[in-house]
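Narrative progress, year one. The postdoctoral researcher (J.K.) led the effort to move from monomer predictions toward full complexes, under supervision of the PI. The following entry was the first complex the group processed end to end, covering 796 residues in total.
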Amino acid sequence: MIHTFKGGVHPNYMKAPQVPISVVAPPAEVIIPMAQHIGAPCKPVVQVGDTVRMGQVVGDNPAPVSAPVHSSVSGKVVAVEPRPHPLGDTIMSVVIENDFRDTPCDDLKPLTEEEMKDPDVILKRMRDAGVVGMGGAMFPTHFKVRGGIGKVDKLIINGAECEPYLNGDHLTMLNFPEQLLKGIELVRIASHVEKAYYGIEVNKQDAIDLLNSLHPEQYGIEIVPEAVKYPQGGEKMQVFAVTGRRVKPGALPSGVGCNVVSTRTCYAVYQACYEGRPVIDRIVTVSGSAIGRSFNALTRVGTPLGYLAEQCGGFVKTPRKIVLGGPMMGICATNFDAPTIKGISGVLYFTEDEDKSVKDPHCIRCGKCIEVCPMNLEPIFMYMYYTKGDYENLEKYHVMDCFECGSCAYNCPARMPLTHAFKTAKLMLQAKAAKEKAAAEAKAAKEAQK
Amino acid sequence: MSGQKERIVLDAAFQPQVRTDRDTRRLMLDVIIALIPTVIVAVLQFGVNALFLCLIGAVSAVFWEALYRFLFKKESNIGDLSAVVTGLLLSLTLPASAPWWIPVIGTMFAIVVVKQLYGGIGRNFLNPALAGRAFLLASYATLMATWNIPKALSGTVDGVTMATPLASLYSTEAAGVMPAYFSVGRLFMGYIPGSMGEISALAILIGAGYLIYRNVISWRIPVSFIGAVALITLIFGKKGFGNGEWMLYNLFSGGVLFGACFMATDYATSPVTLKGQLVFGAGCGLLTVLIRYFGGYPEGTTYAILIMNLCTWAIDKGFRRHQFGVTKADIVLQKAQELAEKEARR
């Protein structure tokens, strides 16, 4: 049986899993931003002039919601200063001059078989190796898994890879199937659950067959084939497709006893535990009409986006935007010097060929946004209230439940900037709520003084 | 390379970065394609004049739209083809005997008054083509009710003009007894007099099938509209309960099918909520039958749809769905809590 959810769209997938994994030569200088996760940013633990080895911790923060960052090459620290971050702004970063020796750091040793049965050891290793949600959310995995212990009875591994262009998960399944299953087993053990469900879209049938041939049941894993539809990989859609449970509005999947972990994260957990290797590289799909071809490039964290394009043959057309991640949810980098980070699964160099926006869009009220919204929202009305600045009705139409999958805007024949509007609306509402809360607190404090 | 990089200006564009190929223009083109079978039938039954009227409707609608937007210094949007659709739809609701200036006046009312004065595409609250037709009905009652004999019936009846099947169906003297040349099969094929677009059920259904297959329109409005007419005429037949023939005559005569498939599904003037679309269609069906049974006017489809157009906003407000993750039990619980709070405040 093929599992899925209601709504969604079928974008032009543009996938190229037949392109083998290529290795991007590490750049002469890597930039390691201190914020590569959701939560407290790291503080640099190295100084200019320090010699660092590949995999050495260069930034850390003891806060619970955080994950250390590691050097992806060996060499010398040449700068500790704010540098452009791919997601915008400048962020404190450690810049390392590559000595091209890749001298490994042996701070992390492979775990013994005994240790790999202890959830606490695995969780600690996840943290030490800097494992974060590598599907793009970059939420520290150790914190997510620990938070789910006791609440979660079903672990769901996200292998949908529903975004167009991206192939990293697919190629990980095909090239490292056993390692992947072992990684999932480790996450499962750390989560204290009996069984993990691995949801994979059936456009990766070869990977499903391969994984099934390796007896996933001996690792406590069941492969769940899923329909090819965007956003199948959305957390709530994934939970619904696999278990039939509906995550409540505003709640996390752990509220219905599920935790969703991405494919690449599980592979990172495998590398951390079996190989003692922290997160310093990943497969990044490089594509887009400015490049003209697709690459599935094994890329070191901290590789500048301009350098990455050069390594992939350079531009055949002038790029107009650099999309990080998939084209549906990915946001744009505006600086060629910004580096790749742990959560970036694809870098797409788009020209105006991909751009279909119009100058003065007119909603034709076709309702196609409503048909595809996986959250059962009514984007047409949300947009209307957004343009009016009507906060009250925006909330009544549940704009806060929008997870910005982009299906409505993708499907909009009139090219209304729907998703962008809801993103802004959510920020406005959050700011308003914070302001009201502060005002209420100030009032309460005043009354207490009286 | 690095020198070139300096000059490249990067956009921080809105997500999503990719969009469907199907834009407004493509949707409207699909509607035009879906209308081709009905136009062909009209030409076959009423001659080249039918095609001529259709073209005049389309061209004059584009003309009015372009003129209005030029005069009021608005950006031209005739490229989206919506005016062509309006003009074509309006022409197809006319009798083939109409003079050439009828669609010109009709589209002026439809485009300028109904559509552009309210802000253009997507902003009008009445179906422009139907409102244009209603305007013409009120202004040129005789011209709008002169029905040429179709080619399929030439020689069967005397004269140049004749009554439509719908008029026969509801005329008091005939008491629902239809002449032999108005068999259900002939109605289905379109061998009957009537407005150019409405005569052939077959051609309309082919077009509607194409629109639904291409997901230009959803099945909800046509199915609930036609379903409601079928159900009501079957239960409350003028020739007794459960008379299938009476039901089929009601479906295939007049504008029910054309209205349900091409008029009631107009984006701007029909609900966007999924349940709302079902309610809207059913409402159109109910009003159509009510007007036919009790109104002073033989055909009810035009006014039924126009009345329901006016209810669209209210229907959309009233038939919202719950967001993902909210069950019916949650709603009941929430309502109970609200009630309890109200009680407590008292």
